[in-house]
């Protein structure tokens, strides 16, 4: 088995799982690397086995798809799964690649995987836009609330408002309600009339339309008030959140005077979409188009031996990730065995990929943050939580010191120099500075102990199966 070509797949979400299974089925030895304790990624996040969940499928839709992926992974003896491995760098070498990771929750001990090719299936992360009061305890991201429910079987509070924009808000609101939370309102900044203008593109995916209708029915069943064309303008509370103020938006995306209303709650789950994780691709020198990794029809990047699939190539949901991962896995299997891939073999999956991308492109024009969201950020609102940089400091860097891009604002204010290295505050800094957000090139994908860096160039043993989580 060790003589077979070796593929390292980074990320065990839908794209990584689909790619691993497709490649392994065609004779490729696969090492599947993920930072979580179990495969599934954010979409198929599972509760810890110690919690004793009796009906985990109640927290998910597309459960049968997950079962097929899970069972396929368990049955594939050529897939070596490494959990609790946090990849911080992928290094190109004279022969193949070295994937450098940190082990376990403490992330102090190193491990290295050597492979002939790499698939980046690193997913995405939430786009966070600040507003007055957003740092109060009780304010969480929409995905954070969902992760607590799926992974920890806990809810963030008793009475919640779900707000922002994007399709993620629907499963978050209905999931919290099904778990016993009183969801006082679902506040969506998008205009429902915008969906009618995209009717042709949306109708091409009847399954997605039916899924949306099911969520709408659940909103009615749980008596969740839907408030469209509104946005959160402030969160209130002393020690923790006790209410939020929402207001209506005009056609230009500005808050309409005199429309503010206050909603009591102890939890605000807020989200404004997602952004692709591109750190590893950037450090490898892969081409980045806007904020996503460029790939061709086979999901290849412009760096030989590196493929990418899923949210890192553009936010598109699990169905698109599965299609891209499957195509990537088949392409990799052919290329590593010296065979020219036959695209006809995955023609049906390719058609699904194309239709889903068109559907997502239509949704993206509907689900967009209010054009003038930055107007609600006061000068004393903290924007960079790591370095406690306020909106006023960022505006001063632009107006008084001449900053014209995110990097210059960072140098003048320290916004983005903290633990997250700007991953959370960069969209907000760019919006307040009035400049375009671009993918930031970071040498390392996560903080690394100096001792690990010092040993990075030295030979290290491959991780054994003993390093896997049970």
UniProtKB/TrEMBL annotation:
UniProt key word Translocase: no
TM region(s), chain numbering: none
Alphabetical keyword list: Oxidoreductase
Domain FAD/NAD(P)-binding residues, every copy: 6-313
Domain of life the protein comes from: Bacteria
Short name of any one Pfam family annotated for the protein: Fer2_BFD
Positions of the BFD-like [2Fe-2S]-binding domain: 382-431
InterPro entries: BFD-like_2Fe2S-bd_dom (IPR007419), BFD-like_2Fe2S-bd_dom_sf (IPR041854), FAD/NAD-bd_sf (IPR036188), FAD/NAD-binding_dom (IPR023753), Metab_Enz_Cyan_OpOx_G3PDH (IPR051691), Opine_Oxase_asu/HCN_bsu (IPR017224)
Protein name: FAD-dependent oxidoreductase
Organism (species): Streptomyces lutosisoli
